[in-house]
Amino acid sequence: MAKLHLITYGCQMNEYDSERVAGLLGRQQYELTDREDEADLILINTCAIREKAEEKVFSRLGRLRGLKQKNPGLVIGVMGCMAQLQQSAILERAPEVDLVFGSPSISRVGELVERARRERRPVLETGEGALVKLTGILPRPDRLKAFVTVMEGCDKYCTFCVVPLTRGRERSHAPESILEEIRGLAEQGYREVTLLGQNVNAYGKDLTPPTDLAALIELVNDIDGIERIRFTTSNPVNLTSRLIQALRDVPKACEYLHLPLQSGSDRILERMNRGYTRARYLELIADLQETVPGLALSTDLIAGFPGETEADFEATVEMVERVGYDSLFAFRYSPRPRTPAAEFPDQVPDGDKARRLSRLLEVANAIQARKNAALEGREMEILVDGVSKKDPRQLAGRTRCNRVVNFDGGGRRLYGELVRVRITQAMPHSLRGTLVGESAMIGTERRHYVG
């Protein structure tokens, strides 16, 4: 069989797309390999959210050039958001590339690879395409968690973001096609699914008849074998009371929400075209915390957006402290091609971006440590998904609120089980605990505790 090596950068959507590409090419007799030097086909699935992500891709392509020289029959392809955004510029900068194709063309990956191999000249395919539900994946007996795309694209046009350019407008997959995919995953032994979309809580408004994410979560809840449901990424503009109530009322829906803030300053939020104010965001947080006690929150923040003053930045720090996020992802602003913010005249110096980012991470780490410490002595539900990175004699898993827990399994084979663990020690980025009694698999009745 021909050998395929996949390299994936970026978000969960890219991980999902890579899985589907592996499945589609598997039907054409391509076998996955983790070794670049034995591959007949190397595909790099790319991210375009930040300039640093793109530079990583070009650096990797430079290293692959030597393999191409040793093996002229090797086909190298670049797919995903960077391919859709940069298009022919990739071929100009990296002539070793044989194939460039965007996300709309993923369903045709087999055809495109064979075309590149047959024609022996670069193939560029970045046009618009129909929305196709890709359900085939390579069987992975060691997997418990799966990503499932429920919608693609975004209509928000934030001034810093390339997603509308790389993924197109918001388009939802039909509920039945999503449920069919998840039933198949459950049959393969998957226990947890994360529903994906660039603006996932806008799901269903474009369908006929219209539906919403809360209704979809309720349907997924009825699938035997699936024990946990998550979703990402949410936009505050589309966060409804019905969806908040689903987090409370649907038994398998995890008490965790990623809700990007980006900035705590109304002036910067307006420049970003985010569509909400600081006050509105805080109203949503209050509703969430009142409706779903113990809910874990994470967010995205941009440090040094064009025009951000020290006062604007301090407003963001104050928001982080007020909300008390369990975790956050903060990044320096990175100008992206063809976005309005890249042309704003008042760009923030790199030194100020770096300083502000460090301050945000320092504040976030202190909050996370305090939150973790408050969990000591608590009994929590853990989905066992492997062993500890630092001590392979210990088991590891995640709570419903997405915290990593390491514990002694007493020699029991608990992979894939839901167990109860009592937290004994809070670490900076994880928890330690002990198995509670003769803990066995937990059912999915509504919990009397939050984990």
List the helices and strands and how they pair.
Blueprint: E1 2-8, H1 12-26, E2 30-32, E3 41-46, H2 51-70, E4 75-80, H3 81-86, H4 88-93, E5 99-101, H5 109-119, E6 123-125, E7 145-149, E8 151-152, H6 163-166, E9 171-172, H7 175-187, E10 192-196, H8 213-221, E11 228-232, H9 241-249, E12 256-258, H10 266-272, H11 278-291, E13 296-303, H12 310-323, E14 327-332, H13 350-373, E15 379-387, E16 395-399, E17 404-408, E18 418-426, E19 431-435
Parallel strand pairs: 1-2, 1-3, 3-4, 4-5, 5-6, 7-10, 10-11, 12-13, 13-14, 17-19
Antiparallel strand pairs: 8-9, 15-16, 15-18, 16-17, 18-19
Helix pairs in contact: 8-9, 12-13
Highlighted features:
13 helices, 6-stranded parallel beta sheet, 34% helix, 451 residues
Shape: globular
Terminal CA distance reads: 45 Å
| Tally of strands | 19
Mean of residue pLDDT values: 92
Which structural class fits the helix and strand makeup? alpha/beta
Instruction: Describe the sheet with the most strands.
Output: 6 strands, parallel
Percentage beta strand? 15-25%
| Tally of alpha and pi helices | 13
Secondary structure: helix percent:
25-40%
* Largest beta sheet: strand ordering: 2-1-3-4-5-6
Unreliable sequence segments = 443-450
Task: Characterize this entry briefly.
By secondary structure, the chain is an alpha/beta fold. 34% of the residues lie in helices and 22% in strands.
Give structural notes.
This protein has 451 residues and is of the alpha/beta class. It is 34% helix and 22% strand. The protein contains 13 helices and 19 strands. The strands form 5 sheets. A 6-stranded parallel β-sheet has the order 2-1-3-4-5-6, sandwiched between helices. It has a 5-stranded mixed beta barrel with strand order 15-16-17-19-18. The longest helix is centred in the last third of the chain and has 24 residues, at 350-373.
